[in-house]
Design a protein that fits this description.
It comes from Aldrovandia affinis. This is Sulfatase N-terminal domain-containing protein. Its cofactor is Ca(2+). This protein is of the alpha+beta class. The protein is 28% helix and 17% strand. The chain is built from 14 helices and 14 strands. The protein has an eight-stranded mixed beta sheet, with helices on both faces. A four-stranded antiparallel beta sheet has the order 9-10-11-12, with helices on one face. A two-stranded antiparallel ribbon has the order 13-14. Helix 1 packs antiparallel against helix 6. It is globular. It binds 2-acetamido-2-deoxy-beta-D-glucopyranose (5 copies). The site of one 2-acetamido-2-deoxy-beta-D-glucopyranose (NAG) has 3 residues, from loops.
Length: 481
């Protein structure tokens, strides 16, 4: 188990291209491409330091969303949310699926592959799956970490021993250097630490710049992979009947990114390309959309209804409602959608730190339920050069070149309220500012309502206990919070 972080680092970063091909031969198909740990490292999102010609080509045929968010900043919970339309607290996929973490969705969850299969539509998944149990995600075709050499690499200790040479982002794997093997279709793009763009939430140090440069190289593999898949699609004659969606699962694996419900942990690239909705191709949308919208979008595209059902255990008998919406109307006219929700409970099994969030217009509210605990750090992020550098500098009392201190990162307030107009980096907490009391209360009540609608077992925390015997209600604990 000592090597588990290397396993997840490898799965997480080598398999950057994950496509689910969902086919209905006669009329409409869907290709859903979910990158792993990717962010806005693309010229589509105005990062001119990196070249992503294939994503740019896709963007010319897509509506580009500028305010898309994952509901959860962790791989398996996010992939489960994408494939079920349910937040992690409702699907049961609370944390990572693989090895010791062992999280799974509830047995009764109605996932896309299940619903589409029942509708006679064939589904397949290639690349990282990272969700379970198998019966909840019954793809007709699967070539994932469960079959591919990635599993081998995770289990073969000789290879695990050799793993670090692939680099922290596995950016050297397959690049043709001695011992790296070759991926014939990949022409690696290299970047110097000086040329990368350092986002506001990452320390600007030589170490993190080198980390970012390595990450850019993996993005070139992703970008070229997307080009290959789209070429296959075109040559197979499906270009004009396939909805193509590109996004990523969570924030990038840097400080304040993955595992956080801040903007930097939840904002995602999102391109939606429909051959039947060309009026907005190449345009951008400001609408607030969620990866919880992907399931309703695909069901809408394929005209498959979402069945009435409840999840006993997870949902206490309450009827399951999708709180996301189909994105197809946005492909025709700019909608006025301004609210998205977030819900995180764990990443690795040891990382219990429940948070709930709502982002409405300029405001983001984060509720840190267990705010007296230090914010947890995951194993592969811990060993990343950027975090090691942060630890070393903090210990040595050297400048961090960061927008936070480690202490501030670890210890958070119960409520965090930010106004992105005046404070785009989310550093000035307004939750205690009396002038924002009405905003705070309004957001708290929206968040609470969403938690009830989605059967959130954490809805009463941390100062009360959820009592479900009669009608569900919060019973006070008198614990001083
Ligand atoms: C890129 O920058 C241009 C010019 O400032 C802006 O109009 C556009 O919205 C930006 N694109 C994205 C995706 O943020
Ligand atoms: C991959 O593994 C899964 C689970 O064992 C299996 O159902 C599937 O058929 C395998 N796929 C291939 C292409 O062998
Ligand atoms: C384990 O990995 C080593 C190094 O790549 C390789 O030589 C060996 O064949 C692998 N073992 C198995 C069982 O595949
Ligand atoms: C797809 O539609 C476009 C525009 O109608 C057309 O030019 C193109 O030939 C079509 N492609 C295929 C493969 O049918
Ligand atoms: C952090 O400090 C340790 C111990 O001095 C050292 O081995 C390591 O290379 C340093 N890492 C970074 C990224 O500075």
């Amino acid at each position: 188990m000592a090597f588990s972080y290397r396993f997840s680092a490898f799965v997480g970063l080598l398999v950057v291209l994950n496509s689910c091909v969902i086919g209905e031969p006669k009329r409409r198909n869907v290709l859903l491409i979910i990158a792993d740990d990717a962010g806005f490292e693309s010229d589509v999102y105005n990062n001119t330091a990196i070249r992503t010609p294939h994503l740019r080509a896709l963007a010319r045929r897509s509506l580009v969303f500028r305010n898309a968010f994952t509901s959860v900043s962790s791989c398996s919970p996010s992939r489960a949310a994408i494939l079920t339309g349910l937040p992690q607290h409702q699907s049961g996929m609370y944390g990572l699926h693989q090895d010791v973490h062992h999280f799974n969705s509830f047995d009764g969850v109605q996932s896309l592959p299940l619903l589409l299969g029942q509708a006679g539509i064939r589904t397949g998944i290639i690349g990282k799956k990272h969700v379970g149990p198998g019966a909840v995600y019954p793809f007709d075709f699967a070539y994932t970490e469960e079959n591919s050499s990635v599993l081998q690499v995770g289990r073969n200790i000789t290879r695990i021993k050799l793993l670090p040479q692939y680099g922290p982002f596995c950016e050297r794997f397959g690049n043709g250097d001695s011992g790296m093997g070759r991926i014939p279709d990949w022409t690696p793009e290299h970047y110097s630490p000086e040329e990368v763009k350092v986002p506001y939430f990452i320390p600007d140090t030589p170490v993190s710049r080198a980390d970012l440069a390595a990450q850019y190289t993996t993005i070139s593999r992703l970008d070229q992979g997307i080009g290959l898949v789209l070429k296959e699609l075109r040559e197979a004659g499906f270009e004009n009947d396939t909805l193509v969606i590109y996004s990523s699962d969570n924030g990038i694996p840097f400080p304040n990114g993955r595992t956080n419900l801040y903007w930097s942990g939840t904002a995602e690239p999102l391109l939606v390309s429909s051959p039947e909705h060309r009026q907005r191709w190449g345009q951008q949308s400001q609408a607030y959309v969620s990866l919880l919208d992907i399931t309703p979008t695909i069901l809408d595209w394929l005209s498959v209804p979402y069945p009435a059902h409840s999840l006993v255990g997870g949902g206490r008998g309450q009827r399951v409602e999708l709180t996301g919406r189909s994105l197809l109307p946005a492909l025709e006219a700019e909608p006025l959608w301004d609210t998205v929700f977030g819900s995180q409970s764990l990443h690795e099994v040891t990382m219990y730190y429940p948070m709930r969030a709502v982002h409405q217009g300029p405001y983001r509210l984060v509720h840190n339920l267990n705010y007296k605990m230090p914010f947890p750090i995951d194993q592969d992020f811990y060993v990343s050069p950027t975090f090691q550098d942060l630890l070393n500098r903090t210990q040595a009392g050297q400048p961090l070149s960061w927008f936070k201190t480690l202490q501030g990162y670890y210890y958070r307030s119960r409520w965090e309220l930010y106004d992105s107009r005046a404070d785009p980096t989310e550093t000035r907490n307004l939750a205690d500012d009396p002038a924002y009391a009405p905003v705070l209360e309004g957001l708290q009540s929206r968040l609470l309502k969403w938690q009830w609608v989605t059967s959130d077992p954490w809805v009463c925390g941390p100062d009360a206990v959820l009592e479900t015997k009669l009608s569900p209600q919060c019973r006070p604990l008198f614990n001083g919070l």
